[in-house]
Design a protein that fits this description.
Radius of gyration: 30 Å
Number of strands: 3
Shape: flat
Strand order of the largest sheet: 2-1-3
Distance between the termini: 93 Å
Number of helices: 17
Helix content: over 70%
Order of helices and strands: EEHEHHHHHHHHHHHHHHHH
Structural class: mainly alpha
Length: 404
């Protein structure tokens, strides 16, 4: 009689695999239905590669995944469904393997009496400090559904901003990759044909043609490994330097000053800071905890250092707007609007308005950046192809003159 491995879940919510001897997979499932409340798939025991662990290891929880989960969770909680039931339903229908595994384990912990935020804190690969702090504030204040709605809105805004950046850069990146492929193909396959013609004619070659012939020879020889190794080493050294505190500050500071991209990076960072800070304070998270979270989610070390410095000022009784102004990192308009929010006692609402304003600014900046990059990329492609063609046709002109 063959042995089957069946996925089962006990009454505490714990999932595991049960071995049982049966004539068929259906019989194996039926035999276990009397023992376990939930019985899943059944398969024959034997030497098989379990791809589930590999699938979980390769998957990652995106902002969109968390936004969808938060929105569905908020709707079910608001409808009066018990949290354990919500988690069970959401884990069953979750399509992300890593998030599904985390939700199953969180459900089990909550069934044992653990707080939702404490259970989520064991899965930092799925739920960051921002998410856990807001869920904890919702649990303490008894407004978990409202907090989950705010989380969903926050994550949806963050996902939308990321998608706008990706969409704006998709065309230039695609054109750049295509241009490099065309350049390499013409250098490796087209130039050698002309090189043999020039060698047979014995014509004196211009400097540009000689350089392109040398480049073609280099790209077709094993020597090409050396520049590749040098470039790879430079990239590795840069990444290693970026992991150091000084390197992170210098590179992130440079990212805020780059032509075309610097202003876009600054506005994106300010929009993220205001959106996250406003959402946290509106959800009842203490201001010092808010600053810790927005510092860790700033995405730029220069801005994170400015937030940490502002936290020290606030601990001594200072105002947030004045503390942020001392570092000359945030735009003056954002500082003024934050100051007005502090004076009127509506800091969270003003933070949201600042976030809305700078997200609109980012959208406009992306459109302007795209309109600038497109002609630049087209000119770059034309220059690369034109250089190759010019280097090949210059000796032709000399040959024509000699014949004439």
């Amino acid at each position: 009689m063959p042995t089957y491995i069946v996925d089962v879940r006990d009454r505490s919510g714990k999932t595991f695999k049960e071995k049982i001897d049966a004539l068929s997979a259906e019989q194996a499932r039926n035999l276990l239905k009397n023992k376990y409340p939930t019985v899943g798939k059944a398969k024959k025991a034997g030497f098989e590669i379990d791809l589930s662990a590999l699938e979980i290891a390769l998957s990652s929880v995106t902002v969109k995944d968390k936004a969808v989960f938060s929105r569905q969770f908020a709707v079910m909680v608001n409808a009066g469904v018990a949290i354990i039931r919500c988690l069970g339903v959401l884990s069953d229908q979750c399509t992300n393997p890593r998030l599904k595994k985390a939700l199953v384990e969180i459900t089990s912990k909550v069934q044992q009496g653990t707080n939702l935020s404490d259970a989520m804190s064991k899965h930092t690969d799925c739920f960051d400090d921002l998410y856990i702090s807001m869920v904890e504030a919702g649990e303490v204040g008894g407004v978990l559904d409202e907090v989950l709605n705010r989380l969903a809105k926050l994550l949806e805004d963050m996902a939308r901003l990321k998608n706008q950046v990706k969409s704006a850069l998709a065309y230039p990146v695609a054109v750049g990759i295509l241009a490099c492929i065309v350049f390499v193909a013409m250098t490796v396959f087209l130039i050698p044909i002309f090189a043999r013609i020039f060698e047979d004619l014995g014509v004196e070659l211009p400097a540009l043609t000689q350089f392109m012939l040398y480049l073609s020879d280099l790209m077709r020889s094993p020597r090409i490994i050396f520049p590749i190794v040098i470039i790879a080493g430079a990239v590795f050294a840069l990444k290693t330097y970026y992991k150091t505190p000084a390197g992170k500050v210098q590179i992130d500071g440079l990212m805020l000053k780059l032509p075309l991209f610097g202003e876009l990076n600054e506005k994106s960072v300010v929009a993220r800071f205001c959106r996250v800070f406003g959402t946290l304070t509106r959800s009842g998270v203490p201001i010092l905890n808010c600053l810790d979270i927005v510092r860790d989610t700033a995405g730029n070390q220069v801005v994170a250092n400015a937030i940490e410095s502002a936290k020290s000022e606030i601990q001594q009784g200072g105002m947030l707007s004045l503390a942020l102004q001392k570092n000359n990192v945030f735009p003056s308009l954002a500082i003024q609007m934050i100051s007005i929010g502090e004076e009127t006692g509506e800091l969270d609402a003003m933070m949201m308005k600042v976030a809305d304003f700078y997200e609109d600014e980012v959208e406009q900046a992306l459109k302007a950046l795209t309109s600038v990059l497109e002609p630049i990329m087209m000119v770059g492609v034309a220059a690369m192809v034109g250089t190759i063609l010019l280097s090949m046709y210059l000796p032709m002109f000399k040959i024509f003159d000699a014949i004439g």
